[in-house]
Amino acid sequence: MNSARWWRLALWPVVTLGAVVVAWSYSIAATHDAGDTVHYAVFWLGVLLVTAPTFVVAGSRRIGVGTRLAWLLGYAAFTFVPKLLRNPSLPLYYDEVAHWRQSADLTASGTLYQPNALISIIADFPGLHILTAAVGATTGLSTWHSAEIVFFAAHVIALLGAVSLGEAVFGSLRAGAIVGLFYSLNSSFLYFDTEFGYESLGMVFFIWCLACVGWMYRARTRRARLAWTAAAALLGIAVVPVHHLSSLFLFLALAFVTVAALLTRHSRETQQEAHGPLWEKLLVLGLLAGMIVLWFTAAAPHTATYLSPYFQGGFSQLGRLWSGTGNGRTLYSASSNPKYEQLFAFVAPALVGLLALAGILGFLRRRRRAAAGADYAVWSPMRIGLSAYGLLYFLALPFILTASGAEGARRSWGFSYLGLAVLVTPVVLALLDSPRWTGTVRRRRAVGTASVCAGCVVLIGNVSAGLDGDYRFPGPYVFGSDTRSVTPEGVAAAQWLARSVGGRQKILADRYAGLLFVRDAASWPATPSPGFPAYDLYFSEGKPSDALVAELATSGYTYMIIDDRMATQQPAQGEYFGPGEPNHPPTPGALSQYTHDPWTTLVYQSDHYSIYRFDFAAIDAHVTGSTP
């Protein structure tokens, strides 16, 4: 049996075995003791069973087109499995609950732009919710299972888009496969960009718009150029109603490419990639810019207000950190991740940095190299622009040390890694193909093995840096965790409220109970802040301020949910409600006072949860601790 046939036959058994091992790791995690990390090792065994041979197939010069594409499809399907198995039947992640509720409400009412209880901005970007509702209406499936279909397809299509982009830039499916696989090593690919969230869909438009632009640059006829230009323009316009960051990062990437095209339009090196008039290259960027301005002004006017605290806070905190006047985040503080994951999280940027440096040196030395028949030696506008764009990854790295900028930095890596993939792919191919390194069978195997191992290290490190273990694995109850605070007791309390008084009730609850009540009771939890300190009802004993009472009453808040563990346990995520809350836990007296106050009536109680109904008209009748 020849090797190509062996690879084709091995694909689906390997993918199936990998999925079974990942499922086994989740079974171990669900019953593991605190501090036990064996499930991490089993998980990575399952993932690398598929990832390592896919790396081999992608880099091999002896593998045919059909086998290479089959392995890429199998890899794309497999990398959806970890998130699918994490919560196969209901939303679990914070963003997922928000988007699921938005889609379910759209399906039930048919009304767009309904306010969202958890993430206000998503109501202004309804593309995902429209698509999910449409799939549900067509198939008859639930909102959740409709979304799973959407995101499985999106995940596979996104990876194929990265492969297509690489093929457009380098003229080789082998190079495209390496671009796609390197992109898949980013911290978001395995979990964050497979969740029920608008970035997961926006990423598809982001990647395929760039792929179409790449093919536009490569097209040799006017008809082909116009077709690719039209496709890119439609994808660019379509991403804007889906996701704000995908739109902005796409604009940034296209701007880099367009500037590269303008700067190199008279260069002999880029003539074979510079067919067509300049307006074709400016059209996609201009239409995208116009759509962003139109949508952000007319349909989503609060986008800048929503995003600016992350940017301003991140830059401000980073400035104080560098000047020595502020403190940064301690990475992996109180983390349960095994030491090798933590080590690889620091090694991964260093490895990628070395590859990027080699790519930059290749650009600086480009005129010394012959371009004889090899697209890897040609620095086209797409290659130059996307490579420069990919370097934004390194600019974002320091922000991981700031509280406000860390989340934004992680979000940006999924986008910038596509540019990095374009920058480093020729370096990887040079290592795999250079006679200096692969002149003998032994050297060739050593270089191939080292390359696969380096890719696995980057994957493990990036996933570890991108998501906490509580999000990645099931396990025992953890107070103050978005994903580990869900218990049958909490679900029963939420379902009781839904049955007794119906949905859309405005409630007070901590972040974690609130998330559960949004999902299972369609409730509307308050968003406390220094200007609306609803958390005072949990942290202070005695009558709340008149201003707070007036705001609660006029806003229609009806119920208060109390989890008595707030007084005895620190939240794993470091906050009970959010920014601005007091820096001490609630006292048992502050939580139990409402049992005796006439303006709060206990309507439900379980081992840990109590639900009170407000009667603000009776608040002055008696206050706990006062004289009747």
UniProtKB/TrEMBL annotation:
Keyword Transmembrane: yes
Domain of life assignment: Bacteria
KW Cell membrane (keyword) present: no
Alphabetized UniProt keyword annotations: Membrane, Transmembrane, Transmembrane helix
Membrane spanning residue stretches: 39-57, 149-166, 198-217, 224-242, 248-266, 278-298, 343-364, 384-403, 415-434, 446-467
Protein name in UniProt: Uncharacterized protein
